[in-house]
Amino acid sequence: MSEKSISPKSGALALVIALALIALGAWSIYAKLFIIAPFAFIAAILVLVGLTIVNPNESVVAVLFGSYAGTLKENGFFWMNPFLVKRKISLRARNNESQPIKVNDKLGNPIMIGIVLVWRVENTFKAAFEVDNYELFVKIQSESAIRKLAGIYPYDSFDDEHKEMSLRSGGDEINHQLERELSERLHMAGISVIEARISNLAYSQEIAGAMLQRQQATAIVAARTRIVEGAVGMVELALEHLSKRQIVELDDERKAAMVSNLLVVLCSDRAVSPVVNTGTLNH
User: Fold this and answer.
1) 246: left (phi > 0), else alpha (psi -120 to 50), else beta?
2) Could you tell me the strand order of the sheet in which 67-72 lies?
3) Three-state SS at 71
4) Architecture of domain 94-203
5) Which of 21, 64, 181, 225 sits CB 3.0–4.6 Å from 44 for a disulfide?
6) Rounded to an integer, what distance in angstroms lies between the CA atom of residue 112 and that of residue 266?
7) CB 68 within 8 A of CB 125
């Protein structure tokens, strides 16, 4: 069964009828027409019980003797069958910020991860009858989706040659995959996922120090690699210019010495002290 709409009656008209019935009951007592008074008051009570107010972005799910009667999403003042069991369900967007939980990433490293989920009820029939408690269902399925996502990707990728998407660098693509996973899980409860994003991501406390050192070492190696590549290019350019302009003729031994000296100067992380040669090239 799917969601269906219900058409209520005007609440203002029902209120006028209830007041008229109350007045009729009071007049019957005054006129000593005791047979009419009980029926008038009972009818007035039934009319008053059926009065319902629906606020904006709110809905009322109605059940009649165990059977789904329909959903009222129109806001206003209405009268419905007094024998209906009415349950109000909010249609407003809601935020659900999960506390960081400890999970294992693809490489088995323990990490702390939390998300922010923006959702709303789209199908009131599913929210009311397909699950026991749709708010608790959203919370539990959010944690389950976090654990699955963390198991698919590593926290970070340290290998530049075989770099893969990671939780830290994935950005919008990781968030979109999280949204798709949550949408599939919450569809059965009539929940629409508006947005889902990772809000907290860090290594677990017991390995945070070791992983920080690993990140620093990886960054240093990457920087050194870039420096060496640039230095080799500069040395190559210098030798090419010297040879092209015929400024000086260098044999293989002198070229090797020049390359060694230039690489030391260019790759050193400290200031280099120059040495002035006052002799010839050979001495």
Assistant:
1) left
2) 67-72, 58-64, 85-90
3) strand
4) 2-Layer Sandwich (3.30)
5) 21
6) 42
7) yes
Could you tell me the maximum CA-CA distance found in the chain, to the nearest angstrom?
A: 138
Q: Give strand pairing partners of 110.
A: 104
Rounded-to-10 torsion of CA 10, 16, 18, 23: -170
SS3 state at 192: strand
Supply the pTM of this predicted model: 0.69
Domain positions in the chain are 9-89, 94-203, 218-267
Based on its alpha-carbon atoms, the radius of gyration of the chain, rounded to whole angstroms, reads 38
Q: Which residues have C-beta within 8 Å of that of residue 65, sequence separation ≥ 6? A: 83
Say what angle helices 205-245 and 252-267 make with each other, to 10 degrees.
140
- Report how far residue 81's alpha carbon sits from residue 65's, in angstroms, rounded to the nearest whole number: 12
Buried b (16+ CB within 10 A) or exposed e, 246-283: eeeeeeeeeeeebbeebeeebeeeeeeeeeeeeeeeee
Amino acid, res. 70 = G
Task: For the chain, 283 residues long, give each residue's pLDDT as a single digit of tens.
Answer: 688 888 888 889 999 999 999 999 888 888 877 788 889 999 999 999 999 999 999 999 999 998 999 999 999 999 999 999 999 999 999 998 888 888 888 888 888 899 999 999 999 999 999 999 999 999 999 999 999 988 888 887 755 545 678 888 778 888 999 999 999 999 999 999 999 999 888 887 776 566 676 666 666 666 767 777 777 777 777 777 767 776 666 666 666 766 676 666 666 666 556 665 555 555 5
* Residue range 100-112, pLDDT digits in tens: 888 888 888 888 8
Place of tokens 């809905």: 59
